[in-house]
Write a structure and sequence with these properties.
alpha/beta, YbaK protein, four-stranded mixed β-sheet
C-alpha cells in the first residue's frame, strides 16, 4: 500500500499536492522535523496498537508520550504496540511511514488531544521519507478518525 494508497486517499480530499517526498529519512519524529524544517512537536506521529486484535492508530504530537493509565481508561485494555514486523501487514504502511491515509479496512484511527495545540501538523504519507502539511481541521477531514481522545502525558 504505502505512498500510493496514502496519496490516493489524500487526493480524494484535494490534498495530494501537499505530499512532500523528502531526500532524507523522516522515519522518526526528530528526522521528520529536521527534514521538514519544523519543531518536533509539530510532527503528527502515528502510533500503532492492537486493541482486542483490532489495529488502532493514535495520532499524537511529536513529543507526546502515551500515558498507560489514560490508554487503559479509554480502550479498557493495556497499551500493546503492534510489533514492527507486523505493522505493514495489519495497517498497510511500513514502520516509519505509518499514517491514517489509505490504511487497510478495519483499522481504527483516533486523534489525541496533544495535536490540538498546533495549527499545522505534519504526518507521514505512507513512506519513511514523506510528509504532508495539514491543518488540524484538514487532518480531521481526511484521516477517517473515530474521535478525539486523551491518552498522552
Amino acid at each position: 500500500m504505502g505512498l500510493e494508497s496514502a496519496v490516493r486517499c489524500l487526493d480524494e480530499y484535494g490534498f495530494k499536492d501537499r505530499v512532500k517526498l523528502l531526500d532524507e529519512s523522516s522515519a522518526t519524529v526528530d528526522l521528520a522535523a529536521e527534514a521538514v524544517g519544523v519543531e518536533p512537536d509539530q510532527i503528527a506521529k502515528t502510533l500503532s496498537f492492537l486493541v482486542k486484535d483490532v489495529p488502532v492508530l493514535v495520532l499524537a504530537s511529536g513529543k507526546a508520550r502515551i500515558d498507560n493509565h489514560k490508554f487503559k481508561e479509554e480502550f479498557k485494555t493495556k497499551a500493546k504496540m503492534i510489533h514492527s514486523d507486523q505493522v505493514e501487514a495489519l495497517v498497510g504502511h511500513a514502520p516509519g511511514g505509518v499514517c491514517p491515509f489509505g490504511v487497510k479496512e478495519g483499522v481504527q484511527v483516533y486523534l489525541d488531544n496533544s495535536l490540538k495545540k498546533h495549527e499545522v501538523v505534519y504526518p507521514a504519507a505512507g513512506t519513511g521519507n514523506s510528509a504532508v502539511k495539514l491543518t488540524v481541521p484538514e487532518l480531521e477531514k481526511c484521516s477517517g478518525y473515530l474521535k478525539w481522545i486523551d491518552v498522552c502525558k
